[in-house]
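Recall the central idea of this unit: under ordinary conditions, the amino acid sequence of a chain determines the structure it adopts. In this exercise we apply that idea directly, starting from the sequence alone.
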Amino acid sequence: MSEMICLGAIAGSFGVRGEVRLKSFCAEPGAIADYAPLTTEDGSRSFSIEITRPIKNGYAARLGGIATKEQADALKGVRLFAPRDRLPALPDDEYYHADLIGLTVVDTGGAELGRVKAVLNHGADDLLEVQASGQSKTFLLPFTLACVPTVDLSAARIVADPPEGLL
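Accordingly, the structure predicted from this sequence is:
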């Protein structure tokens, strides 16, 4: 089975006719329906998606097989996945977050700084949450060209030039 990528999550029901609140993790949020059918993480359920309208923090949507508010409520918190091969190829300087998680981070001198634990975005640029080597603490590294000049997916590493005082 191909690698599964999380494209969105169900935030609960919307209204009383079985619609759900859908949060999209796609670069173009409305494109989530283009990758349907989406499955649950364990692959046990699959849903077609029809976006009915934009709402605050996402979309109201109809999922195939969901007809009541109770069924929609039961799906709150469920993450929706699509096979990696359904996603478009990216230009050389763009990456899927899933590709960055787990990569080794080294400084420009080659010393290991840690591994990428998560990719965060709080409204501005992306931040890499890096688990420091041999430590329980993490640090946030801005995912900009100045701080991360090289991402080498084939070697599973990131070369970083952290800002002064970060470490």
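The helical segments are 69-74, 97-100.
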